[in-house]
């Protein structure tokens, strides 16, 4: 049986900076290619991979849905999330627009959720290792449930009336948060970086 939907989310492990064979760049292939290894150096770059998955999903009659990569729980000096996965999120958004594919913006949701909960309040989203150090890359069981609830709510929304542009994200966050036992409210980030 073929699936009705295929959820496509990559990019979370592409920004490690370790130049691993599977890492891909969010931007078009640079010319000329760097001499040193920087992940995959052939045509299998991030955007082209997304297009391949979309084509394959459509070929079996499924509806592809791109999901931007969630952000890691790493903070800057002002205790705001460092947007390390943002370039991959922006690449996924661009491909979704080009390919007329629905998109769930998990990146924006994760940044706003973590910032809204704060450094201490967001710690439940990620597990502690046996050494006592918190793993701010992988989710805890509760963190996985939190993000899965958001994705499920967006899929439910998509099966009904879509926003005019087919995208869902920050406008729906407080609806999702209202169903959680978390005392947090999310507002859209200011366009002005100073917050004025």
Strand segment tally:
4
The structural class is alpha/beta
Helix-strand pattern: EHEHEHHEH
- State the assembly state of the protein chains: single chain
User: Mean of residue pLDDT?
Assistant: 74
Main pleated sheet: 4 strands, parallel
Shape: globular
Distance between the termini: 53 Å
- The spatial strand order of the largest sheet comes to 1-2-3-4
What's this model, at a glance?
This protein has 196 residues and is of the alpha/beta class.
Fold and architecture overview:
Helix 1 (46-59) crosses helix 2. The protein has a 4-stranded parallel β-sheet with strand order 1-2-3-4, with helices on both faces. 35% of the residues lie in helices and 7% in strands. It is of the alpha/beta class and 196 residues long. The longest helix is centred in the C-terminal third of the chain and has 18 residues, at 141-158. The chain has helices spanning 46-59, 86-99, 106-121, 141-158, 173-178, and strands spanning 5-8, 63-67, 102-104, 167-168.
